[in-house]
Amino acid sequence: MKEKLSLLKTQAKEEILKLNTLQEVEDFRIKYLGKKGLITEISKGMKNLSSEERPVIGQLLNEIREEITNFIESKKEEITKALKEKQLKEEVIDITLSGKKVELGRLHPLTETANLLKKIAMDMGFDVADGPEIELVKYNFDALNIPESHPSRDITDTFYISDEVCLRTQTSPVQVRYMLEKKPPFRMVCVGKVYRPDYDVSHTPMFHQMEGLMVGKDISFANLKAILTTFMEKVFGENTKVRFRPHFFPFTEPSAEMDVECVICKGKGCRVCKNSGWLEIMGCGMVDPEVLKAVGYNPDEVSGFAFGMGIERITMLRHGIDDLRAFFENDTRFLKQFK
Ligand code: DAH
User: Fold this and answer.
1) Backbone dihedral angles phi then psi of residue 141, each to the nearest 5 degrees
2) Which of the residues 9, 32, 217, 260 has an alpha carbon 20 to 30 A from that of 282?
3) CA–CA separation, 195 and 102 (whole Å)
4) In terms of C-beta density within 10 A (0-12 exposed, 13-18 middle, 19 or more buried), how is residue 261 classed?
């Protein structure tokens, strides 16, 4: 019996060395220690042994059972460890490889300028309004006191959709819409796209304007000068010199053009300011009584001023850009420059 047992032990030891998978180890366990396993079968034969032999064999059996259990445990451990190592090796990530750089987008310089202008206006108490780009001829021209014969109404200057509808050529119709909806006093600005059939170095068929309007009791040209001067100082820096020149617009009377000292040469004279030292920056004036009447206001009770400027022009001056078309070509190398 003793010999049988030690043979069994040697056999088990040899067998277990050849095992490679957890399933094989389990089969091995069942073969030796299972209910019908080899060791169990032998234990059943114990009852036939003599009372001297029984405890000796019993102890031996226990030892062998324990030993086989130990084999199984350490084999399992060995296999699990090998599996884990294999997995780790397979799933290894080379953290020394540099990652893909995430390119951050940024706001288009025109959007950025528009945001700046709106922010300055809001800080000065202006409401930010909006209006449609497809506009009624009535609001784009008639209500703004622009006569039927005005050249800006020609099909060479305006994109018409029908006799009554066009793509707005200016943001000024938003003044009309705003006044029809609100009661004075108020101050509002509007930034948006406008359209004209032009295309060369300084004109694109779509561009952007900002319109402003302030209406109330006793609003004067002095208010216009004060507010627009402060506004331009906030855009181009404190102590930016400005001047107002008489001009004509059908919707304002009196009208003016506002210049700022050339931001490129600081007034000395350069190519950008055509050696004048000044840059034309916006149109403005006191709202014409005819415009106030067209929206049902009484010009004897309220007055106001209006102004309009090109967003592209201001952006070009802020960044020293000399070709307008660069804004719309979407060359990211151009767009990336502006921080
Ligand atoms: N609408 C004018 C244009 O497109 C700009 C303008 C000038 C707007 C004077 C105004 C203004 O509100 O008062 O050229």
Assistant:
1) -125, -60
2) 217
3) 36
4) buried
Q: In what order do the strands lie in the sheet with 186-195?
A: 127-129, 186-195, 206-216, 303-310, 278-287, 252-261, 242-249
- The pTM for the full model equals 0.72
- Per-residue pLDDT averaged across 272-280, rounded? 91
Does the domain made of 109-335 have the CATH classification 3.30.930.10? yes
Ligand 1 midpoint to CA 241 (Å)? 21
**pLDDT per residue over 170-209, tens digit each?**
999 999 999 999 999 999 999 999 999 999 878 899 999 9
User: How far, in Å, from the CA of 308 to the mean position of ligand 1?
Assistant: 4
Q: Is 145 in the pocket of ligand 1 (CB under 6 A)?
A: no
Q: Which residue has the higher pLDDT, 147 or 95?
A: 147
The residue behind tokens 């405890």 is 55
pLDDT digits (tens, 9 = 90+) for 9-37: 888 888 888 888 999 999 999 998 888 88
Please report the atom of ligand 1 found closest to the CA of residue 212: 12
- Which residue, judged by its Cα, is nearest atom 3 of ligand 1? 170
Give the residue whose CA is nearest to atom 2 of ligand 1: 308
**Which atom of ligand 1 is nearest the CA belonging to 194?**
4
Distance 114 CA to ligand 1 centre (A): 17
Please name which of 115, 133, 311 lies closest in space to residue 208, comparing C-alpha atoms: 311
Where does residue 257 fall: left (phi above 0), alpha (psi -120 to 50 degrees), or beta otherwise? beta
Q: What spacing in Å lies between the alpha carbon of 306 and ligand 1's midpoint?
A: 8
